[in-house]
Amino acid sequence: MDFAFDNSFHDSMEGFYAPAEAAKPSAPKLLIFNRELAQRLGIDLDGATDEQLARIFSGEELPGGANPLALAYAGHQFGHFSPQLGDGRALLLGEVVTPDGERFDIQLKGSGPTPFSRNGDGRAAIGPVLREYLMSEAMAALGVPTTRSLAAVATGDRVQREQAHPGAVLTRIASSHIRVGTFQFFAAHFGADHVVQLSDYVIRRHFPDLADTANPHLALLNRVIGLQCDLVAQWLGVGFIHGVMNTDNVAVSGETIDYGPCAFMDRFSVNTVFSSIDANGRYAYGRQPQMLHWNMARFAEALLPAIHAVDPADVEAAKDIVNEIPERFRTVWHALIRFKLGLDQSADDATLIDNLFDALETNGVDFTSFFRALAMLLRGDGSMLERLLPAPDAMAPWIAEWWEHIEREAIGPLEIADAMDAVNPVYIPRNHLVEAALGAAETGDLAPWLELLEVVRNPYTPRPVWALFAGPAPTGFGPYTTYCGT
């Protein structure tokens, strides 16, 4: 097996990480391997057996060319600054460059303690590992920027949490694992020179077109804010709630990272919270845009030494960029919702869009199914919409207004319906299905999880055999609570 590592962070950023090694598992066993992703990464699997894959992706065997390390970072956790966090249960093996020239990190999660573990065991249980695998692959299929999952391996060891669980290791793929918290760590502890060095590296790796701008560090701030506006809008568009939008969980690459107490919303409610540790709803569904703004303000603060070093006057420009985030986000969000509603991007529909969410909340409508039901209505079939509403006329005023907008479109209803179906999923990882699949996996039965994985990897095409995967939770399920895992 050949990875062809090209480890730029290890080679050029000494002092920004700590060397580390994986703990040896007692009996690694491959649970799943993402061969399609491996092929995209250019990993040569010629002759590789499941046993060899298990050894490598559990940390038992170090692949040639790897330079294992744990990244240093800080972070605001629920608004409170922690000056040192770092990879306490993750190990970056190295970077690969794909056949089409993209660079990706290969990282193990749950492979044992590192210098940043803070007395933790650095392990992961099978449930959180399979949750992240499932969620990240679902998000990728939905077209949402995300880290990916390459492998999950059972370690043969028990991990003690509230009770003992089977241990596992996840292999995560990311454009990089550099976070807002990475900048915060070096701004807090080392100052301008280190922030400049980190910013220069991020620009070289992710945004080389910014290198020749008047102030590349200011341009980096602007670019990352744009990516985060796009990302959070896409989260909201599929009903996703991250759960822990701490600054150490915000990747500057614009990818969704760290699937801990995350979940997808069924019935729409702007204040939906699933995380057991989010007692005050800081990261509720509807507060995610505000938290985006807050996190990007913290990123700007960490970047200011680098911005100031080029031109002190650009500090005011940085403030202006941060202040523009709410309007910038709203523009992106409205554009996305227009697509979901089948409306032209030039439509004057801000009131229609805002009123939609009030109506969904009032009537407790299933968020994912609603948009598919609208497309069915355009085809002359209102039965799906009727099943979703508490009464046939429950959303009649809003639907009538939406119809008025549809009638002004340049294309016909059937074409609009097809366009809507292309951006509105049938299937998401619904919470009751996720819990059932993870519960079965805990006992050694992967079949329900594998079936659910296949479904969420094909979110836009309805199949009769998968009808139960598109439905709401059964009566009596909930309230649903998720927990931090890996």
Give a quick rundown of the structure.
The chain is of the alpha+beta class. The protein contains 17 helices and eleven strands.
Characterization of the model:
- The chain is of the alpha+beta class and 486 residues long.
- Among the domains are: 8-174, no CATH class; 180-333, no CATH class.
- It contains 17 helices and eleven strands.
- The strands form four sheets. The chain has a five-stranded antiparallel β-sheet with strand order 2-8-9-7-6, with helices on both faces.
- A hairpin with a 5-residue loop joins β6 and β7 (103-109).
- α7 (216-237) packs antiparallel against α8 (288-310).
- The longest helix is centred in the middle third of the chain and has 23 residues, at 288-310.
- Give a quick account of the main beta sheet: strands, pairing sense, barrel closure: 5 strands, antiparallel
Percent of residues in β-strands: 5-15%
Task: Spell the H/E element sequence.
Answer: HEEHHEEEEEHEEHHHEEHHHHHHHHHH
Termini separation comes to: 27 Å
Shape: globular
Which stretches are low in confidence, meaning pLDDT under 50 for 5 or more residues running? Answer: none
- Average of pLDDT: 96
Query: Using DSSP, what is the number of strands?
Result: 11
Count of DSSP H/I helices: 17
Proportion in helices: 40-55%
* Structural classification: alpha+beta
Strand order of the largest sheet: 2-8-9-7-6
User: What's the Cα radius of gyration?
Assistant: 23 Å
